[in-house]
# Entry
Amino acid sequence: MMVRHDTPDDFVLATEETHSVREFVELSFTTAGRRIEWHGMGTDECGFDAANGDVLVSVDTRYFRPTEVAALHGDPSKACSVLGWHHKTGFEDLAKEMVAADLAAAKRKLRANGA
# Structure
């Protein structure tokens, strides 16, 4: 729709839902068949595999933004009104799709490397 639009413009595509990184991480690992448990606080917090205790997620302050905001929320109203666009994929389905694509890519890479 954006490519076929007569006038080039910027559009935000969003679900209007707000979710935390923690929610995304938990859903992603659940989709991959692993349950994550959180221990620690702040920058010392880590996510561990509930089954074996392996560290799956840790905080890396190198990736902090200089002016971090508490929450980001996409407003797709312009895409809706100008293009007639409406999201069809919700947060949960999007996360599951992303994990499935990553797992498929990892399997292809393993096969290509003879594993």
About this structure: Residues 21-112 form a domain with the UDP-galactose 4-epimerase; domain 1 fold (CATH 3.90.25.10). The chain is about 35% helix and 10% strand. The mean pLDDT is 92.
